[in-house]
Every structure is written in C-alpha cells, then in structure tokens.
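Q: I'm writing a short methods note and want an example of a predicted protein-small molecule complex. Could you take the sequence and the SMILES for zinc ion and return the bound structure as tokens? Please keep the output block clean; save any remarks for afterwards.
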Amino acid sequence: MKTITPPHITRHIQKLIAKVVPGQSASYLTVQPEPNAVVNECFPNVAAKIERSGGHMICGWQIWEWPHVMVEAEFHAVWVSPEGQFVDITPKPHGEDTILFVPDARRAYAGVVIDNVRMPVRDDLLVRHFIKASEAIVKVMNRGERSAQYGQVSVPAHEIEPLMMAQSFLGQSISLGLRDHNSCLCRSGSKYKRCHGPSFELLLSK
Ligand SMILES: [Zn+2]
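A: Understood, no commentary inside the block.
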C-alpha cells in the first residue's frame, strides 16, 4: 500500500473534504520537520514548537491518496507561525515534502483517537473490505478503557488477529492489481467475491 499527497484535487478528494469539513477548502503546505519532531506525533510536536518559537496550533485533516484505490483524511495538527504562516513540522513516513491540508476549526485535540475517514475511488469489494478492516482495527484498539491508554495498547489476540490478517490479505490483493472478479489471492482458483469475499464480509460486519 502506497499513500501519497494527492498531486491534484480530484472530484473524489472534493467529496472527501465535503464529508469531513463541509464548506472548507484544502491547501498545500510545506513540510519542514523540526529537529526533534517524531513521525505521527503531530500534537506533541506542535506543542513543543510553540514552547520554543511561539505561534499556535491548528487542527484539521491531512489528505492522502492511494491512487485508483481510495482517498483518506487523517486528523492532523500543524503549526502556525507568529506571522500567520501554516507549516507542517511533523516528518512524514515516506518523506513527503508537501501535504494537502484542510483546517477544521470545530475540532481540537482532546487526547482521544479520531480515526481516519476513508472513501473508495472505485467500486470493488476488495477496496470496500480493506476500508472496513482498517476501521475495525482502530475500533478494537480503542474499545472501552483502551481508549484512555497511551502508546502500546494490549489487545487480546483473538480480537485483533483476524482483522489484521484480513487487512493484510486485502492490501496485498489490491497492491497486486487484483479486482473482486479476479481469482482470489489464496490461489484457490475462484474469484475473490466467491472465495474469501463472503467470509471477510461476515467477519467485517460484526
Ligand atoms: Zn480465497
């Protein structure tokens, strides 16, 4: 799976933005990682930056695209300099140097996990199941008292493993270019929608 900063604001991205922050528009921001900033830890990164340099935090959504598969909005914080410039100071997992960002004035970081919002860009059971599996994993990780735990969360294997296996199976299938009418990744010879499809449907509709 390879998500990137969308090179263009496509129709699907406009739909996603309308869903997460109605009426708001997105803009491209430069990524200028701070020396001690940590990947995926935008909130503490921005808080530390404000201590050092002033300015303030703005929350919103970073937009990602898995080309031809899905678009995704991730809750994210960027730093606003004392001069009012928006800068993303959090380093990116694949070293992207720009992000597409939509401010969301209604939300502030309250210490709870806000899951990504994902939308398929093609009508395919593999993509729908991949999105459902990703959502189910975040739900299980944050169920009940786990939502208050920070860092490594321990989750019983029987709850999480089937979902992780499904997500990995689906991610691999999609990365190989398979569609739901192609033969299943498991090499049974039948189509995904008749092979692993129905059992994943059952697992993911729980
Ligand atoms: Zn199969």
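A: Remarks, as requested: The two ends are 25 Å apart (CA to CA). The first helix runs from residue 11 to 20.
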